[in-house]
Amino acid sequence: MQADPEGRHVCGLRDTAYRGDEHSIWLRMTAAGYQRVDLDTPSVYRDYLEPKGERIPIFPLIAVLYVSATHDSYPTRYTVGIPDFAGDFGFALEQVQDLFECDPEQNDNAALIAAIQGGVPAEIHLVAEPAAPTLKPGASLPVIAPAKEINDGVGAELVVAAELMKHGWTVVYRGNQRGFGYDLEATREAAVTRIEVKSSYGFTTPELTQAEWEAAQLYGDEYILAVVDFYGGDQQVCWYLRNPAACVVPVEVAQVAFRLPRADVRQLSTEAEFL
After folding, report:
1. How far apart are CA 2 and CA 130, in angstroms?
2. Is the dihedral of CA 143, 149, 154, 157 positive or negative?
3. CA separation for the pair 168, 19 (Å, rounded)
4. Which positions ≥6 away from 97 have C-beta within 8 Å?
5. Is 184 helix (H, G, I), strand (E, B) or coil?
6. What pLDDT was estimated at residue 186?
7. What is the mean pLDDT of residues 167-195?
8. What local confidence, expressed as pLDDT, does residue 103 receive?
């Protein structure tokens, strides 16, 4: 404690740290009156939003906040997603993405979504063969099974296809044909586009397979990356990027797979009745 010119006792600390405590001093009295800490300063909130250096997973956070909330705390919602959370708490979507762990495949996020939906909330990407594609007639658009909300990518492909057809494109499906490097092929008069669709229950960070990246390089301006954020929710939004190979520098991600020799696993196998 210190005394100001008028003889009042005031806090003499000049920063937010206090005796090694886990919390910060957010409000203190000075000669000029009460002074509060700028809550937008990262050093103030980092220890709270990144315990042990890891960002808080967004979906469990939303579940805890809204399940325990009273009706006069937040709006009454039967479903709630990241955009709802951002609006209710005064965040911009970019702030939510920066402050919290929004990857649906992160362990805690995935576990919660799986428990709610009864499945694994991850996209399934078939690894395309690198060989040049042999052109076949385009397939009809698939029919997604009802009553399942697991994001296997097909639902998002249908969302994009419907939006393209609304704008006069004729769409055929390539997602079930290996080696093409894209999901949809769309034509309108003389124009041809090849669309690869990526989606997520939250913010989508697109990842292209080797075949998809090679296709993006090959087709240039004819290649479109279609991204579906918050797939299946009320705030679902689609956005598009033309010629991603020319305008974005990718970050190469090394992937590890564990192959089990067939000869070893086959001799140890059993029938379903003995499981």
Report:
1. 73
2. positive
3. 66
4. 203
5. strand
6. 93
7. 89
8. 86
Token representation of residue 218: 């090959």
As a whole number of angstroms, the distance between CA 150 and CA 124 comes to 10
- Could you report the per-residue pLDDT of 34-87, keeping only the tens digit for each? 666 677 777 777 777 888 888 999 988 988 888 776 667 677 777 788 888 888
- Going by their DSSP bridges, the two strands 184-188 and 2-3 should be labelled as unpaired
Look at residue 189 in the predicted model and tell me its pLDDT: 92
pLDDT at 17 over 80: no
Residue 38 CB neighbour total at 10 angstroms: 10
Q: What does pTM read for this prediction?
A: 0.56
Domain 123-275 sits in CATH at 3.40.1350.10
What whole-number distance in Å separates Cα of residue 253 and Cα of residue 250?
A: 9
- CB atoms < 10 A from the CB of 7, how many? 6
Domain layout of the chain by residue ranges: 9-116, 123-275
- State percent of the chain over pLDDT 90: 23
> Which amino acid belongs to residue 85?
F
- For 172, the 3-state DSSP assignment is strand
Nearest to 225 by CA among 233, 217, 124: 217
Q: Are strands 9-10 and 223-229 parallel, antiparallel or unpaired?
A: unpaired
Query: Residue 57: helix, strand or coil by DSSP?
Result: strand
- Of 230, 226, 224, the C-alpha closest to 200 is 230
Contact 257, 225 (CB under 8 A): no
Q: What SS3 state is found at 185?
A: strand
* Calpha distance 252→142 (Å, rounded): 31
